[in-house]
Design a protein that fits this description.
- It is a single chain.
- This protein has a single domain, classed as 2,3-Dihydroxybiphenyl 1,2-Dioxygenase, domain 1, CATH 3.10.180.10.
- Helices cover 23% and strands 38% of the residues.
- The chain has helices at 16-26, 65-73, 87-96; strands spanning 3-12, 34-37, 42-49, 52-59, 76-84, 107-108, 114-118, 128-132.
- It is globular.
- 27% of the residues are buried.
- The chain binds zinc ion.
- Zinc ion binds next to strand 1 and strand 5.
- Zinc ion (ZN) binds at residues 8, 10, 55, 79, 81, 129.
Amino acid sequence: MKILKIDHLGLAVNSIDEGKSFWTDALGLVYEGSETVEEQKVTTAFFPVGESEVELLESTAPDGPIAKFMEKKGQGIHHVAFRVENIEEALEELKEKGIKLIDEKPRKGAGGAKIAFLHPKATNGVLVELCER
Ligand code: ZN
């Protein structure tokens, strides 16, 4: 498997509208607009930072994964995403190594990316996303 870079940091927020001003006004990052991924019940907004991005995540439904995360932990870092060259190959390799996966097969993420999450139990408590774009 080849990890190319940290693709983005996923940050859970109550509201992208309210949460984005810190990133744009205080840090001077550029807001690239938002996108809703219906199947994950989330709206995402990306702010490029050099080679990587900050991704704000706002739940669109009370039973969505981000809403459930925020019930337990509140706003804050939700996941770290690594860009890989070939996501199917990476998942296959991790499976062979006995790493617990949330997604055995890639699913559709924001911006047409293919994404998959690894289980936090296998990563010392960090939710890790792999993505291929
Ligand atoms: Zn992400």
